[in-house]
Amino acid sequence: MHDLQPKHIKLNKEEKTKLLLKFNVSLSQFPKISLIDPSLVGGNFSIGDLVRILRKDEEGTELEYFRVVVK
Q: Would you state the pLDDT for residue 58?
């Protein structure tokens, strides 16, 4: 993984369920990321997984973004 590429972390079933309940949303309402996206290569991701993306802003604060893996 490149130093500038944000971390992509696969959520387990429990984390996924908690997140869906916390925001009261369904999986289809999350933004999507393709399974063939270069950032997911080698990460053991599959369709339907929820991915936490950790990006840093200008001040260095880590921000969370979420994507659901699609075909």
A: 87
Domains (ranges, CATH) in the chain? 7-70 (3.90.940.20)
The 3-class SS string of the chain reads CCCCCCEEEECCHHHHHHHHHHHCCCHHHCCEEECCCHHHCCCCCCCCCEEEEEEECCCCCEEEEEEEEEC
Angstrom distances, CA of residue 55 to CA of 16, 21, 46, 59:
19, 23, 22, 11
Q: Is 43's pLDDT higher than 90?
A: no
